[in-house]
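stage 2 :: seqdesign
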């Protein structure tokens, strides 16, 4: 499964694991792939603690980080973006009442303790810049940006520090914009993917992007969960795979237990793209929560970041009480891709990596046999 990109980055396998869980990131890097820790929603202090932990674990093996850098959001035309209070003023009372009534209808208990609702960083480039400076203080080998092209200062910093700068793209145009901005690597992420995703399928998008940005290397993302899909990705011209959903049912994952059980039982038709968590279309598991937001008689989700601010307390309540409240369990969901249909057993990250590698080898062998007419 060796590719030029894997050799350049010192990887045994060109398997890149996107994750918000430090344990998964470290386990993938230790197993010969590259763990990429998604920092979205974390403060600089949290990030320092997590990256220090990862570095101790991986002991020099390569790992990366990922940041959300949306180009368009409420306040993006306003210099410096809006403050938290200015954003909150823009949330209509009707929406607040709807969220409250939804929690009441499903009898979601209030939070027992006074759990702080995470403020996180702003979504604007400037508020993220400080955080990105922190990331570059660590021994990262790759930094990826999602929802918008990497800004010039990030590209420059990457070049200075020998850190590969990658960008996620859901269309050829997005890929070309990031290539023109100076990105070193494009992640072509198809419709099937968990999280924010576009409308072009991986099968169509990957070869289009490979041709459009050549000679830049491309990773395939969206719907990859077996060695057969890894082989197909390389056949489409990708130099590796970028996988997000598959790790959510591993032993190491911090996925909430109720959601993990739902993922294990779900089929590939049980996800949808919904704006109900972040304000931008993001693939997630269907649940009473997404059904309520899809109902045309209810308010439409607000744009980013208003929707995130509107629902964050409700989401914390649902997640924290789902183990004891049937209503909260019905509402609970999380980002996941269509590959959830094949995520049916809890395994260690190492076992998943081994299955991907042996699945790839078996597929190559079968293709050789077919080509030889055996
Ligand atoms: C739970 C979850 C959270 C995600 N959050 C982010 C994120 O913060 N930044 C990002 O670039 N991509 C994010 N993604 C998308 C992944 O980077 C990746 O492209 C996607 O999961 C690939 O498709 P797959 O889910 O079919 O493996 C997320 C995906 C999932 C499943």
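stage 2 :: out
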């Amino acid at each position: 499964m060796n590719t030029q990109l894997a050799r350049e980055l010192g990887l045994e396998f060109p398997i890149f694991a996107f994750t918000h869980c430090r344990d998964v990131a470290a386990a993938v890097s230790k197993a010969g792939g590259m763990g990429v820790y998604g920092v979205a929603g974390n403060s600089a202090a949290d990030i320092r603690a997590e990256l220090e932990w990862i570095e101790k674990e991986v002991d020099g093996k390569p790992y990366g980080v990922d940041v959300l850098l949306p180009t368009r959001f409420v306040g993006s035309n306003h210099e410096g973006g809006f403050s938290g209070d200015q954003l909150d003023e823009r949330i209509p009372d009707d929406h607040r009442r709807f969220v409250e009534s939804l929690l009441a209808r499903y009898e979601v208990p209030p939070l027992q303790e006074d759990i702080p609702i995470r403020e996180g960083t702003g979504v604007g480039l400037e508020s993220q810049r400080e955080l990105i400076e922190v990331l570059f203080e660590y021994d990262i080998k790759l930094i990826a940006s999602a929802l918008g092209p990497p800004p010039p200062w990030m590209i420059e910093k990457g070049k200075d520090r020998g850190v590969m700068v990658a960008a996620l793209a859901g269309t050829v145009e997005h890929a070309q914009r990031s290539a023109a901005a100076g990105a070193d690597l494009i992640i072509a992420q198809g419709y099937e993917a968990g999280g924010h995703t576009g409308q072009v399928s991986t099968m169509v998008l990957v070869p289009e992007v490979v041709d459009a940005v050549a000679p830049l290397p491309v990773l395939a993302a969206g719907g990859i969960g077996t060695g057969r899909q890894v082989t197909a990705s390389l056949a489409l011209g990708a130099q590796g795979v970028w996988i997000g959903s598959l790790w959510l049912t591993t032993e190491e994952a911090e996925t909430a237990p109720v959601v993990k059980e739902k993922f294990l039982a779900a089929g590939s038709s049980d996800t949808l793209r919904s704006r109900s968590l972040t304000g931008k279309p993001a693939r997630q598991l269907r649940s009473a929560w997404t059904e309520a937001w899809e109902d045309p008689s209810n308010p439409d989700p607000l744009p980013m970041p208003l929707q995130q601010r509107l629902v964050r307390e409700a989401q914390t309540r649902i997640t924290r009480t789902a183990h004891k409240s049937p209503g909260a369990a019905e509402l609970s969901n999380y980002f996941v891709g269509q590959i959830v249909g094949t995520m049916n057993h809890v395994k260690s990250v190492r076992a998943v990596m081994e299955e991907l590698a042996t699945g790839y080898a078996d597929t190559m062998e079968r293709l050789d046999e077919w080509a030889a007419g055996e």
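stage 3 :: structure notes
- DSSP finds 15 helices and eleven strands in the chain.
- The chain has a mean pLDDT of 95.
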